[in-house]
Write a structure and sequence with these properties.
TIM Barrel; single chain; 36% helix; alpha/beta
Length: 282
């Protein structure tokens, strides 16, 4: 894959541990203005993975965002339910809500917290999704722990019998599989990433995960306990500057910004795309 492509994604969900279902970026014109300015000034394209139960509350803001920045929408479940036994119901409900609002079927999905198994992939295939963006090809050690180190650090096809879906995994540095996302970059610092990239570069295709609350987590820090509070608050005051620096770094390295749908179409036409049986998903 010689072409370098970057996709900025935004998981549009309620603010972290906020039981009211609020998204402060949607409620605050200053926050939305700062985000939009960075996107527009740098010719970034954004793919928003939407928790579809929020459509009723934020339909006006979703429409405004669509007119303000280059953005397309995928699905991020219906209610942000993490328990996998409810995955199929979440998919079905989200497809209905998405189609009712946008008038078309969704083609892309991202599971909450990257929690997905083989039965989940079957649900996505049955609902005619073209791509999934749930896999973080790394290891996670908290209560949502998983290891995807056995999966590729680049796009691939999940296949089962005659069915398939393209997986567009989140960005990780090569070999060490360190996740490259807004929350991780804020926590560890972009300078550390730049140093590591000299030996462990980014892949040619970079899918950056982020959330609205990544840009103002300091305003809701009271919701968070323990070490996660510390992790989220690292560099929180400079979140927008960190985002702009990440964008600049990708531009310097020759990455072209695309929507996830554009990346899907590009990847689908690539010869010799890696193929992984769904049964490999644990």
């Amino acid at each position: 894959m010689s072409k370098r492509i970057a996709c900025v994604t935004l998981d549009i969900e309620s603010d972290l541990l906020d039981k009211s279902g609020r998204i402060r970026m949607f409620d605050n014109t200053d926050l939305m203005g700062k985000y939009s300015s960075i996107v527009n000034n740098n010719n970034v394209k954004v793919t928003g993975f939407l928790v579809t139960s929020l459509i009723g509350k934020y339909s006006t803001e979703i429409g405004l965002l669509s007119r303000t920045i280059p953005i397309e929408f995928g699905v991020h479940s219906h209610s942000h339910e993490r328990r996998l036994e409810y995955f199929a119901n979440e998919v079905n409900s989200s497809v209905t809500a998405y189609e009712d609002f946008f008038g078309v079927k969704p083609i892309g999905y991202r599971a909450p917290n990257g929690l997905i198994n083989r039965e989940s992939i079957f649900s996505l295939i049955e609902n005619q999704f073209k791509y999934d963006a749930s896999i973080f090809p790394s290891i996670r050690l908290d209560e949502y722990g998983y290891s995807n180190l056995h999966l590729p650090n680049k796009p691939f096809r999940f296949v089962h019998s005659n069915d398939e879906i393209i997986e567009l995994p989140a960005a990780c540095l090569d070999t060490i599989r360190l996740v490259f996302s807004m929350s991780y970059v804020k926590f560890l610092g972009l300078e550390l990433y730049k140093t590591l990239m000299r030996v462990f570069p980014l892949p040619d295709i970079v899918v950056i995960d982020s959330h609205p609350y990544d840009y103002y987590i300091n305003r809701i820090a009271g919701n968070i306990q323990g070490w996660k509070r510390y992790a989220h608050l690292r560099n929180s005051e400079e979140a927008f500057s960190v985002f702009e620096s990440v964008v600049a770094l990708l531009q310097e390295k020759g990455y072209e910004f695309m929507f996830m749908s554009e990346l899907y179409k590009y990847v689908a036409d690539l010869p010799k795309l890696p193929t992984i049986p769904v049964e490999k998903l644990r």
